[in-house]
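Figure 2 data, in text form.
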Amino acid sequence: MMKPVRNLIFDLDGTLVDSMPYYTDAITDILKAQGIAYDQQEIVRDVTKLNRVGIAKYLIEHFNVNATVDAIVAVIDQNSLAAYRTAIPTKDGVVETLWELSRSGYELSVLTATPHPLVDECLTRLKIYDCFGHVWSCSDFGTSKNSPKIFYAVAERLGVKTRECVMLDDNFDALTNAQKAGMHTIGVYDPSSEHLSNRMKEQFDGYVYRLWEIPSLL
């Protein structure tokens, strides 16, 4: 139990929405367009811990993609846009759990590497945008979840200490950095990070397979 923590911060992709298959397709489309062979599982494993700039650098360094970082980021965003606008669903139990937590007095926020045009439209379409007091893209802080710095900044904007926050994410590295900043941490199952599930269970304050399990941990 983490009482009296009232500030819950959710990742988006792989935590609230089942977007990783769509996001991976947006990335592999770049490789297909240049006739580059790839292993789908390797891509999923490697990109889940990266933001869009990191993914672009990864594609250049590991696959010799012939494009600039900015150009690759633009293509990823363009390839993803239709999916975020029309197709990406919530994960099981998300809508009911968010409204239950909101009614119970928890302050809910989103912190995601996904840019605002995508995350805002997606959450609005899924009718859960209004569950959150804050919806942040990492770009709002000029940094990423690859460093504890962003989690200190989030707590400061919320007007609380990091120890008064819970970060919920499917990404092991992001949760590790939130933990280093002093936040409570709950891992969320996603197939893209299944190979790290045992480490998450050992290291973090909790681990859930479905979001409706969250209230019992708080």
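Caption note: The longest helix spans residues 69-86.
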